[in-house]
Amino acid sequence: MSVLVVGSVALDTIKTPLGQCRRVLGGSATYSSVSASFFSPVNLVAVVGADFPKVHINLLQKKGINLEGLEIKKNGKTFSWEGEYSWDFSDPKTIATHLNVFSQFDPKIPKEYKNSEFLFLANIDPQIQAEVLKQINEPKLVVCDTMNYWIESSRSQLVKLLKDIDVFLLNESEARQLSGETVIVKAARAIAKMGPKKIIIKKGEHGSILFSNKSVFSVPAYLLESIFDPTGAGDTFAGGFIGYLAKNKKVNENTIRRAIVYGSIMATFAVEDFSLGRLGNITPDDIKARYEKFKALTCF
Amino acid sequence: MSVLVVGSVALDTIKTPLGQCRRVLGGSATYSSVSASFFSPVNLVAVVGADFPKVHINLLQKKGINLEGLEIKKNGKTFSWEGEYSWDFSDPKTIATHLNVFSQFDPKIPKEYKNSEFLFLANIDPQIQAEVLKQINEPKLVVCDTMNYWIESSRSQLVKLLKDIDVFLLNESEARQLSGETVIVKAARAIAKMGPKKIIIKKGEHGSILFSNKSVFSVPAYLLESIFDPTGAGDTFAGGFIGYLAKNKKVNENTIRRAIVYGSIMATFAVEDFSLGRLGNITPDDIKARYEKFKALTCF
Predict the structure, then answer these.
(1) Are A260 and B203 inside 8 Å of each other by CB?
(2) pLDDT tens-digit map of B154-164
(3) Across-strand partners of A80?
(4) Strand locations in chain B (E)
(5) Nearest to A266, CA basis, from A36, A92, A56
(6) Cα gap A46→A72, rounded to integer Å
(7) What is the DSSP letter of A144?
(8) Residue of B82, B99, B4 lying closest to B42 (CA atoms)
(9) pTM metric for this prediction
(10) Preferred mutation among A171, A218, A248, A257 to probe B, highest tally of B CBs within 10 A
(11) What average pLDDT does chain A have?
């Protein structure tokens, strides 16, 4: 089963205590598409400018990602983000955001994608996420991500969107910000009342927790020796999550739990290098090996 | 199989954002003994003063804890600690510590405890922990806890002791402090070089991780709606851990993993009220129910 991913494709300039990079391939839809592509076919809908390097197009194509929905604006520049991480590698400081072509992004879903069953609304303006959702006929599973910026600036649009979301992903601080609750269990319960059937709270190096009305599932994180650049970890998690579900076609408690484990594992590859440096070069065997290690790490 | 617990029995005065209490039953050996008593017989070695309320003695006896090794100094006062927690419920601020009878604590292990196979050196001066260890003939499993205060003030004694420890327990910040490493995997590896065969790093609401030369085991925490008072959580974890192992007599990868899960579960009861308010009143069925919930929370 294919996954439809709608979100940002960007050029990132990043500084961490361990190094820096300039205008490398990034964006929520990029990380999630590449991650999902290891499990199922991916259709990407996004926009870039004329400055978007051909080498990045080649990489996405090499991963088998269908780029029919990737609009290239001849008179525009690609969305770019510049950020800096401190030693705790948590939320980065944004140095600059240039929306560029993204400021007028009005995604037209290609006709052949309108019956998509697995839809990932990657981190973009919730208003645009809602516009996309309207264009999909009867999605089987709608997964949605967001970020602190939208919770602050577009709260009402986000809350409205949440009524139609199956799985809502957010990190701990976003969950607290959106709900006004400090205890995570209470935050999740408050967000559940806004509509999403399931909520996944990502805790970075401390793992993640799935809340649904029937059950709670908590997993630790895979243990990494070092993190190089956390950019895209959440997007990569989401891509692995929905990709695994699309591959299995079934969405139930068991497949969702395993999808979270695969999402966690995919994220570990994303943080081991800048951009797609590591994630773009892994093999299915790498994923399998890390899944087996993860099982050994957690079983009792 | 019995567990021998040596550590502090105290009277605690505690303030949290949710309430306060004065001179309630506390101490590392108290929490760990009561926790272990749900799994196996416990022999306690500690010291208190003439002011130690009989009602506390009764509670410990009711739990079947053997108090032959609890010295009552007729001319002394019980060790007391006064602390305050802020909303993050992490390391408390110490307002006052009165060592009292504890300042001259020179534990004499009763003859019939000298062949103890399961020994827990609860959080006290590492010099005293070493003196205790010398008096035990051939322990099968020596578990040791400590705190930031000893890492700072008695580092060399602690490091010397660690050569003879099977399982060393400490929290994240203590692991960083002792090793000088910020990344937990590296901190654990550095501490392993100091001697302990296994290291358990407690991460509070984020679970715990076991490191040994053969494997790593990571578990999330049981999800609580609210924490009332975190005092004694680590001691209670340790008591459940060693109690479960003593009950099963076997110390191997499987039993140690399950012991960590039981330790985590016991700690959740400790934090639900001041002192032994909750932990002292649970039943084996409460533990069983929480273990089943924990399995459901974590399996995939």
Answers:
(1) no
(2) 999 999 999 99
(3) A11, A98
(4) 3-6, 10-16, 19-26, 42-49, 66-73, 80-84, 93-98, 118-121, 141-145, 167-171, 198-202, 208-212, 216-219
(5) A36
(6) 9
(7) E
(8) B4
(9) 0.91
(10) A218
(11) 96
Question: What is the per-residue pLDDT across B236-258, written as a single tens digit (0 to 9) for each?
Answer: 999 999 999 999 999 999 999 99
Which among B182, B184, B223 has CB closest to A218?
B223
Map out the domains of chain B with their CATH numbers. Answer: 3-298 (3.40.1190.20)
* Structure token digits, residue A6: 């709608």
Cβ atoms < 10 Å from Cβ of B108? 12
Q: Where are the beta strands (DSSP E) in chain A?
A: 3-6, 10-16, 19-26, 42-49, 66-73, 80-84, 93-98, 118-121, 141-145, 167-171, 198-202, 208-212, 216-219
User: In this structure, what token pair is assigned to residue A138?
Assistant: 């009867």
Q: Is the pLDDT of residue A14 over 90?
A: yes
For residue A271, give how far its alpha carbon lies from the nearest alpha carbon of chain B (Å). Answer: 15
The token pair at A193 is 């009342």
- Is residue A265 within 8 A of residue A294, CB to CB? The reply is yes
d(CA A151, CA B236): 39
Between CA A47 and CA A10 the distance in angstroms is: 9
- Residue A282: how many other CB atoms lie within 10 Å: 18
Q: Closest residue of B to A223, CA-based?
A: B185
* Residues of B whose CB is below 8 A from A172: none
Q: How confident is the model at residue B91 (pLDDT cuts 50, 70, 90)?
A: confident
- Band (B188; pLDDT cuts 50, 70, 90): very high
A182-214 pLDDT per residue, tens:
889 999 999 999 999 999 999 998 999 999 988
CB B109 within 8 A of CB B136: yes
* Contact call for residues A2 and A118 (beta carbons, < 8 A): yes
pLDDT at A190: 97
Chain B residue set in contact with A, beta carbons under 8 Å: 87, 182-186, 203, 205-207, 209, 215-221, 223-226, 254, 257-258, 260-261, 296-300
Could A300 and B219 be called an inter-chain contact, meaning their C-beta atoms sit closer than 8 Å? yes
The 10s digit of each residue's pLDDT in A94-136 is: 999 999 999 999 999 999 999 999 999 999 999 999 999 999 9
Which residues of B fall within a CB distance of 8 Å from A257?
299-300
Closest CA to B270 of B213, B204, B214, B206: B204
CA dihedral B130, B134, B137, B142 (to 10 degrees): 10
Q: Is the pLDDT of residue A88 over 80?
A: no
